[in-house]
Amino acid sequence: MSTAVLENKPNIPAEVPTFTATMMIRRFDPEKDAEPYWQDFDVVMQGTDRVLDALHKIKWEQDQTLTFRRSCAHGVCGSDAMRINGRNRLACKTLLKDLDLTKPVYVEAIKGLPLEKDLIVNMDPFFDSFREVQPFLIASSKPEKERIQSPVERARFDDTTKCILCAACTTSCPVFWTDGQYFGPAAIVNAHRFIFDSRDEGASVRLDILNDKEGVWRCRTTFNCTDACPRGIQVTQAIAEVKAAVLRGKP
Ligand code: SF4
Ligand code: FES
Q1: What mean pLDDT do residues 194-207 have?
Q2: DSSP symbol at 50
Q3: How far is the CA of 229 from the centre of ligand 1 (A)?
């Protein structure tokens, strides 16, 4: 292990341990390549660095054409979901030190959506499904004051409010891989968020939409979605609750 010397920075230790990580990245340029291919890069990183930092370093220092999405860099915007060592994760939430760096770190685009370039996929089909479940409050009345809700009523859908629409769940789902028409876990999670909101009156519309042949019944309960979710949402449970509501109506 080597060290990087930081001078004149009073709050940072004088020496920060560094290590070399080999990043194996699935590249694809539609203007040049017939097929995606793997390319390796060695990068010198520090102990607090994440996979996103390694991608930045490659782009800034080795290959400016490397293409990926990111915005917040802190697990909020949901734009940097990718497959890291075969698992869907957010690059900004995956610390390099938590990976086995005796081997290359494999990074590729999420599966099941059209590949555009390097680590970027076309998210349109994902957001089309999201929009289709009407993920907004539907209420006929226009109250003079705020719509009152008890803490228990609010807690009913708290888990599914945490979704950041990263698509890690939907693109880890084998049903979605084989049939991109399936609404997918993320759309169902966002339907759940409103179906179980006591202020909402659109549950029956959404449940009708999800009772379609491409709706909740396609779920095979593989739990890949729950494992993939960087927000810790109980995705499979939310899907099961929507299935029960389709059968028995909104509780
Ligand atoms: S449910 Fe989780 S994995 Fe799926 S889109 Fe929302 S935040 Fe991402
Ligand atoms: S860059 Fe925003 S969630 Fe990772």
Answers
A1: 96
A2: B
A3: 5
